[in-house]
Amino acid sequence: MNRIVEVLHSRFLEPGSVNLVLISPLDRIDFEPHVVVIYGLPAQIATIAKAFIWHGVMPSEITYIGLASCTLIPYSHKTGKVQVNIPGTGELILGRTESHEISIIIPAKYLDLIIPGINAVRRIHPYPLAKFSLYEPRVPKWYEELTFDYYKNTIG
Q1: How many domains does the chain have?
Q2: Residue 95 phi, psi dihedral angles, 5° rounding
Q3: How far apart are CA 97 and CA 70, in angstroms?
Q4: Which segments in the chain show pLDDT lower than 70?
Q5: Of 81, 76, 89, 65, residue with least CA distance to 11
Q6: The domain containing residue 87 runs over which residues?
Q7: What is the pLDDT of residues 36-70, one digit of tens each?
């Protein structure tokens, strides 16, 4: 339990270090953000993370303690590091994060790297992922024989 408290306290902002916290959807923002949080499917967030890695910006270690995942937002502001977040219970219940979503927390100084980075890694990490691009279906031997017999008898 002490380790969890220690991790949580390391994520908190120092008292008096900020005067105001503003939260807004990006399409309605009317101020310059310090930190941006993007939610998406794991493959979408992985694409953004790889865009940063392309530019040499490594997301910090992923820490998951099962609660208070929202504390990664002030932690990202405090450290200036990109964070990948697996939502905790409170974020799923109170924040209405969907059970299939994760997020990435990005200090504003890195926002301009997203689009060029995605374009750069598109060939090695396409999105949407083409799951079946290397897939060759396997047909059971008996099916091949039945099909062959069918076409042989039908066509002639």
Answers
A1: 1
A2: -85, -5
A3: 11
A4: 143-156
A5: 76
A6: 2-16+24-155
A7: 999 999 999 999 999 999 999 988 777 777 788 88
